[in-house]
Amino acid sequence: MPPAAVPPDPRTARTRSKLRRALLEECTLHPLAEVSVATLVRRAGVGRATFYLHYADLDALAVDACADVVRDAVDALHAWRGVPDPDAPPPALRDFFDQLAPHTALYRELLSPGGGGPLGLVLHQDLRARSHSERTLVGAPEPDLIASAVAATFAGVLADWLHGLIQATPAEIAQRVWRLLIALHRTPLP
């Protein structure tokens, strides 16, 4: 019998939450490159050693802080059941694009055009895994191929939109992304 999983320490969760919140607050005032660990730990009310106990550097914290956007994106893309209507993206997808505004500059630093960068990697991995799992569950063809295409398409379009390479309001980009993803899922494969 395998050993029981050790529940996460609530103190660790609280400390990480304080650090993530402090980083997001600081990044509304300054670009990530101008944020110092000293300023951040002061804002979070934790010690410098505590910071390094949890994160290797500010980039690692920033990716962790922005990982919620990844989870929101994955959930938003899968917030529908039944036959998708190309003219009606899930409200969660529209909400996702709307909520990016306060931290757009930070997301741009972590998500490079085309969908690369540390946040792009996390987004691609999480979205691909979720898409693959759902396609496999329903017996849809080519789960590996379509899951990769969905993840790459969404990460790339999101990044390019954040960097201003695609001009659209949040509602417009949600609609366009939704249609692209439906088309990918419906593409007939041999």
Strand-helix topology:
Layout: H1 10-27, H2 37-44, H3 48-54, H4 58-77, H5 91-98, H6 104-110, H7 117-138, H8 143-162, H9 170-186
Structure report:
This protein has 190 residues and is mainly α. It has 9 helices and no strands. It has helices at 10-27, 37-44, 48-54, 58-77, 91-98, 104-110, 117-138, 143-162, 170-186. Helix 4 (58-77) packs antiparallel against helix 5, helix 5 crosses helix 9 and helix 8 runs antiparallel to helix 9 (170-186). The longest helix has 22 residues, at 117-138.
Question: Summed up, what is this model?
Answer:
With 190 residues, the chain is mainly α. Helices cover 67% and strands 0% of the residues.
Give descriptors for this structure.
single chain, 190 residues, mainly alpha
| Terminus-to-terminus distance | 44 Å
Topology as H/E string?
A: HHHHHHHHH
Mean pLDDT: 88
Structural class by sheet pairing and helices: mainly alpha
Low-confidence stretches: none
**Percent helix:** 55-70%
What Rg is obtained from the alpha carbons, in whole angstroms? 19 Å
Strand content: under 5%
